[in-house]
Amino acid sequence: MHLRMPPLFLADARGLDFLNSIATPVDAPVDWIRDGRGLIDWLQQAELVPRAQLAEIAARAMPGELDRVANQARDLREWFRDFVKRHMGQPLSADALEGLTPINRLLERDETYHRIVAHADHLALETARRWRSPESLLIPIGEAIARVVAGEDFTQVKACQGENCTLLFADHTRGHARRWCSMSVCGNRAKVTAHRSRQRGAL
Ligand SMILES: [Zn+2]
User: Fold this and answer.
1) Mean pLDDT, residues 176-195 taken together
2) pTM score above 0.85
3) From the CA of 168, how far away is ligand 1's center (Å)?
4) Tens of pLDDT along 44-99?
5) Is 181 strand, coil or helix?
6) Domain range summary for the chain, segments of one domain joined by +
7) Cβ(57)–Cβ(137) below 8 Å
8) What pLDDT, on the 0 to 100 scale, is given for residue 190?
9) What is the whole-number distance in angstroms between the Cα of residue 29 and the centre of ligand 1?
């Protein structure tokens, strides 16, 4: 039942949404990329790979191949979680580069190129990518991670303050006051708890 829950995209940065692809939104943990099928679905909903390419890769994959890529994706996820946990809350300095070799190695395999396409009545330059193997599905994830590392202010990369909540996000709010993964989940829960303890205090 939980497996049909939609993935969470509340981090304000895809690379952090990737970390949130395992979470406990209600009571049981859900891993949206638990297998190859899950990885395909997550990538589609994250809009990291075009739908047509995903369908093609899924159709061409050998048995077990996508599951193996999902395994690699989960390893990458836990590696990046460790990196984020070590560095969040303070500015990320150039010294961190040393620890980022796995991402640069992944990005080296990228096969992006540009092409001119027609957009209604004008021409536009589009970035496209060759998808040679199921492993190439890891590359847009690597790119999303690299964008977090190179583009986000790590002093504003935060963990939700909700009790038992594991979700991470980039606080892009004015004044940097964001405390919760979502107001409707952890924010409300905290309000209810505070209210209850106030009531108890009044008794
Ligand atoms: Zn939360």
Assistant:
1) 86
2) yes
3) 8
4) 999 999 999 999 999 999 999 999 999 999 999 999 999 999 999 999 999 999 99
5) coil
6) 14-202
7) yes
8) 76
9) 13
- With a cut of 50, say whether residue 187 has pLDDT above it: yes
- Please identify, in words, the CATH class of the domain defined by 14-202: mainly alpha
Q: State in Å: Cα 68 to ligand 1 middle.
A: 30
Cα of 14 vs centre of ligand 1, distance in Å, is 17
d(Cα 202, Cα 149) in Å, to the nearest integer? 47
pLDDT at 105 over 50: yes
Q: Which amino acid belongs to residue 14?
A: R
- Ligand 1 mean position to 179 CA, how many Å? 8
Buried b (16+ CB within 10 A) or exposed e, 19-30: bbbbbebeeeeb
Of 30, 39, 25, 129, the residue nearest 76 (C-alpha): 39
Q: How far is the CA of 20 from the centre of ligand 1 (A)?
A: 10
Distance in angstroms (rounded) separating the CA atoms of residues 133 and 60: 9
Q: What is the pLDDT of residue 188?
A: 82
